[in-house]
Amino acid sequence: MAIREAIRDGADKTAQASSFPLIHCRGLVKVYPLSGVEVHALRGVDLEIKQREMVAIMGPSGSGKSTLMNIIGCMDKQTSGDYYLNGVDVSKLDENGLAATRNANLGFVFQRYNLLARATALYNVELPLFYAGMAGAEAEAKAMAALDQVGLHDFSQHWPNQMSGGQQQRVAIARAIVKRPLVILADEPTGALDTVSSKDIMEIFQKMHREHGATVVVITHEPFVADFCQRKVVIRDGQIISDDQVPNWHDV
Amino acid sequence: MAVKFSILSDFAVRALKANKMRSFLTMLGIIIGVGAVVLMMSIGQGTQAQVMANINRLGTNMLMISPGASGQFGVRSGTTNTMTLKDATAIAKLDGVAGVAPTVRTSGLVTYGNQTWTTSATGTTPAVVDISSLTVAQGRFFDDTDVQSISAVAVLGQTVYTNLYPNGANPIGTEIRIKNVSFRVIGLLQSIGAGMGGNDQDDVIYIPVTTAQIRMSGITNQAINMMQVQVASKEQMDSVQNAIETLLRTRHRLAATAADDFRITNMAQIQETAASVTGSMILFLASVAAISLIVGGIGIMNIMLVSVTERTREIGVRMAIGASRQDILSQFLLEAVMLSLLGALLGIIFGIGGAKIFAFFAKMAAPISISSILISVGFSIVVGVFFGYYPATRAARLNPSEALGYE
Ligand SMILES: Nc1ncnc2c1ncn2[C@@H]1O[C@H](COP(=O)(O)OP(=O)(O)OP(=O)(O)O)[C@@H](O)[C@H]1O
Ligand SMILES: [Mg+2]
Hints:
The structure holds two protein chains of two kinds. Chain A is of the alpha/beta class. Helices cover 37% and strands 27% of the residues of chain A.
């Protein structure tokens, strides 16, 4: 609890001073020991992402994008280097602290939706609330509000196999935002969708960013998806090779 | 920090419901195991109760004396006409002896009018009423006067009565013939039912022992076939047995080196033996059943391991949205315990049902003991925790990013 609050408090303070980096990586290195051969997935990444930023991470396959996102998302630990999430040194957190941080401060969206197949859309969105100890009408109301935001109010009782890929991904987004996280992390969220659905998804992220001040990090291979973002970071061979603002950003 | 128990239980219930058929098949081992424990304990205790009841009916504080030495393997040998009525009278005077019923058996044809029935007539004394727990339904039992006066009177058991008097006439005062000797019926006994070996204990006719000895056999003073001695208390069984042995050896003028020409069976010892034999039978049945419970537990572990592998991505998702390792461990452990507990409940229902069916067809009591239910439920929880723990730790050890990337 204390950690969760500590990170939250930091966020509230930085709401005024938005130059304070929400995500702060310094010299991140990740080495995977793969059957004797060491795979250097990240070779010293320095990255700062401020609150209310909307960032696209691009790069060829195997360049280390997912590896970076897993570390930022507290799902994996770096081999060396520092990572501060809202000023908190994540490497100092224990297992429970990491779980609580993921639950309270991070919202994940995956390429393959990763919804529970044997549960309704509503239940899938309620799940993060359940792990926070909330249940009953309170959880249902929050989950319904999140489904509303992604335009799936009428689909709350649908099962994943009764929905299109785009709809499933919107359920996954509702699940990611239901706890109002500090950062939404999306790893190729449009990778399995057609252009129209991809645009829908990106518009939802933009809306979250515009209306609720969400910080969004999106990994993508597609330039038109990256064009929805304000900033474009390109990675190659585990290193950042460019970091630019998008000139004609879609956002108003 | 850890998630509330009620929420975790809900996760576990949902996971089990999501695959109902598999959950049921996983439980099957526990259902059969617990059902077997409950049923076996019930049958075992029912059998024990019946055996003990039959032995009790023979009399608990009872010594049975039969003539002839006991040879190897308990086969009787030697002369068989060594016991007399006077022996019985002498034994009756010993300290601690509550009653003696000497018996002389003759079998043959019994007739009443044109009805006939082949059975055996038991010559004895009125002491048999207490010793064999007989109840007179109609009329009276013969008394000592009848024994002394060698009266030709008979008391009938229910089987003899229904066969000789098929239209249910009042037998008291009627004349029957046993091996062509005329007897007057003075009493009718209440039904007792089948004995230990399934023999009909109502297929009896009691006549005074003197009458049997003198009128029924060609020879006068026929020897006693057997004596039942009722001892006043359980504590006196051994001392009375020793006293009878000494008395009979003296009366029969046996030399110090000679073997006994009679055999004393101590019913209290038989009862103890029967209790320990049926006790170990129950233990044996229960342990065979308990083994199937362990096999059921291994079934749970097997399926839980498969389930952890299958649900690797789901575990990754749960971790990504905030489940701690403790939450994952608890959920999988709960699933295993719920499977085994639900299996135990179903097993108890089947076990009780099976015991009732057994009791109905075997026509004997099959009591359900609370202890067998508590033991099997407790054992199932232990089985669930024990065999669920390893798969649960496997689930909880997963690395979230790798679990999510799992194909
Ligand atoms: N769990 C792992 N064990 C060993 N090596 C890994 C593991 N995960 C990733 N790698 C390796 O690390 C490197 C970077 O992988 P990563 O998944 O970060 O790439 P990516 O940029 O996300 O690629 P893609 O665009 O194909 O998703 C790759 O060479 C990959 O093989
Ligand atoms: Mg990737």
